[in-house]
Amino acid sequence: MAVWRHGKKVSIVKSLAASTTEPAAAALVPDAEGEEAQVRNGSLPEYVYAQLRQDIFDMRLLPGDQITETEIAAYFKVSRTPVRQALQRLQNDGLMQGYVRGGWEVVPIDFKRFADLYEMRKLIETHAVRRLCTQAGDQSVLAGLRSTWCVAAGLRELDGPKAAQLDEVFHQTLVRAAGNQEMAETFDRLTDRIRIVRRLDFLYGDCLHSTYEEHAAILDCIAAADADAAMRLMGEHIDGSHADVNQITLHRLHSARATATTKPPAYVSVRVRRSF
């Protein structure tokens, strides 16, 4: 998938079930007439949306960080109209929320909300593996997943961000293979909402090897058509991930950003005004 970052097109790993369309490839122009044309064809809102969304997922923007339409418009050299459209779209994604007079913030961590999301995730994924075990889904995808996850320890991906992307692909692929398109699209939106906290585990490296072992065991059960075992292992796998989410603290979020190679974006006016 290609996204626009600071005026340049950048390729990133795309999950097999991406929840958004690829941003339009349009260059920014400084004159008002050119900007109006791009607002009409939708490319400016797409440009701003893609950048802000990626900044959230890269943890350049953290839960509770505040931004304003004016500062974002100045940073990207666009009017507030496409900025507002982009922020409203992020709000629909469950990633941003407006609070007063053009002010917005990244949705703060809400443990009750994450509990609800993980409950839904467990329902969807256990149903998906059951369908795969009963041959109702497409098992041809298993060979590709096994080549990634059923490998010796020395061949495992130990880079946190890369492993996190592979993890998302694993879960989205299983859900999509179950054959229910509406369920797959719902799961993609759910994945967006929990992406930040899931990536924290991989950044700290606590779950890398256990993730490989648990994924391999789930794939073995699906291959053996053992629905009960596959559902049990998937449920335990998701419960373990949820337990890790409950350990997240404000300090841990800031530590994750401090160790990242990217710095907070210049358009962040106030950093994390809420505590957990």
Folded structure, characterized:
The protein has 276 residues and is mostly helical. Helix content is 59%, strand content 7%. It has 11 helices and 5 strands. A hairpin with a 2-residue loop joins β4 and β5. The longest helix is centred in the last third of the chain and has 24 residues. The two termini are 34 Å apart.
Radius of gyration: 20 Å
Q: What characterizes the major β-sheet?
A: 3 strands, antiparallel
SSE series: EEHHEHHEEHHHHHHH
Helix/strand-derived class? mainly alpha
How many DSSP E strands? 5
Distance between the termini: 34 Å
Query: In DSSP terms, counting alpha (H) and pi (I) runs of 4 or more, how many helices?
Result: 11
Index terms:
11 helices, mainly alpha, disordered C terminus, three-stranded antiparallel beta sheet, 276 residues
Can you summarize this structure?
This protein is mainly alpha-helical and 276 residues long. 59% of the residues lie in helices and 7% in strands.
SSE order and pairing:
Layout: E1 2-5, E2 8-11, H1 32-41, H2 43-57, E3 66-68, H3 69-76, H4 80-92, E4 96-100, E5 103-106, H5 111-133, H6 142-149, H7 160-177, H8 181-204, H9 208-223, H10 227-245, H11 250-258
Antiparallel strand pairs: 1-2, 3-5, 4-5
Helix pairs in contact: 2-4, 3-4, 5-7, 5-8, 5-9, 5-10, 6-9, 7-8, 9-10
